[in-house]
Amino acid sequence: MSGLLKIFLTAMLIENVVLMRFIALCPFIGMSTDVKKSLGMSAAVMFVTVLATAATYPLYVFVLVPLKLEFLQILTFILVIASLVQLVEFYLKKAAPALYSSMGVYLTLITTNCAILAVTFDVIAKGYSFVESLTYAVGVASGFAISLLLLAGIRERVKIAPIPAFLKGTPILFVAAALLAMSFGGFAGLIK
Prior knowledge:
The protein has one domain. Helices cover about 75% and strands about 0% of the residues. It has nine helices and no strands. α3 packs antiparallel against α4 (about 75-95), α3 (about 35-65) packs antiparallel against α8 and α8 crosses α9.
């Protein structure tokens, strides 16, 4: 298996940011109420994750490391991510006002989405090249999208399913999310 495909599949399935690493649970639960909102959030996270990685990697390698300012990594990365989220916000406000209003506070929370910050840290820690970093970012964002869309689909089915009263609402949601996480555990031996 090629190196880039291995990085992509590992990031998307084996190290799924939501279901295996339990990062970004707030948008996972909050934005999975329907498929349309999940698609919008997934696209926004994909855009911010890939661009944040494309911006922070060279910033770290060519500015922070040579100037021995690695201690500014968190601050620098969050500033880059926050700027990109503002771009997404401005675009959605103009192009898709209904989606913008339905996303509410979760759009702004992309700035503090631990998954995006984790990607920017992971690519440095894993020693990836620039291309490998972008592949990893796309894989993580795709894994986030898959998780979000799967839970959104499950939630739509749960609305019409006969569920015991004590499990209705949040309890069944967490049971479904736990079963989803367990199923992703099966991908662990997929890539060697």
